[in-house]
Model the fold of this input.
Amino acid sequence: MSKIIERKLRILAKWLKEETVYVDSYTDGALERAVKYGQEETYRRIGDIIEEILDMDDEQLENER
Done:
C-alpha cells in the first residue's frame, strides 16, 4: 500500500474516533439520544477496525483472504 493511502486512512480512522454527534438534552428524547450515542460508538469502532487492519503485517493480511 502506498504511504499516501496509508496516511489518508489513518487520518480517516482518527477523524472517526474523534467524531462527536450533537445531543440536545432539551429537545432530543431518550430514543434520539440513544441513536446518536450509538452513532458515535459505531464511528469509533470503525476507526479502531481501520487502524487494526493498517497495523497488520503481511502474513496476517494473507490469512484474512
